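Notes from hallway chat w/ T.B., transcribed later so I don't forget. T.B. wanted the structure written out for a chain they're using in a teaching module, and asked if we could keep both sequence and structure tokens in one place. Agreed to drop them here.
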Amino acid sequence: MLFVNSLTDAEKITLEAMRENHPLSTTRKRAHGILLSNKGYSVPKIVNILGGCRQSASRWIKVWDTIGIAGLIEKHRSGRPQKVSTEIETEAYEKVKENPRGIENGCLQKLSTEIETEALEKVKENPRSIENGCLQKLSTEIETEAFEKVKENPRSIEKVLAEIAEQTGV
């Protein structure tokens, strides 16, 4: 059975405060797991109480015993790249800020058209611009639109393919 080495009073107070007040739920969960292990709960019981998997709970205990409190804190993760450029995001934010109920007025639809137009301009300027993502984004939008059209009328695939070829200049 895997359990944490016994905790000092200072560690218990710190972990309790972390469990109660840390802004990230994963870190709160890890601190709680260490406290439960110190009280004699087995890894399967900890997982049953907190959720997650046995491997994760075991890793928390091992990290606690080797690194201490620093090992429980969630590290920064890079995540996926943004789909929309910062300029467009800022513009969208400003437009919504100007008119928060602008969705009825077509504000978001207009913004979508502007994004599409910008993507087309970027592709015209640099046809090999797939590395900056605009061609891929445009391709996904056209693909989605084509899928919807074919779903509405399965026999119209030739027409849809011709429209896509016309739009993309292929």
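Follow-up for T.B.: Residues 86-168 form one domain. Might be a good example for the class.
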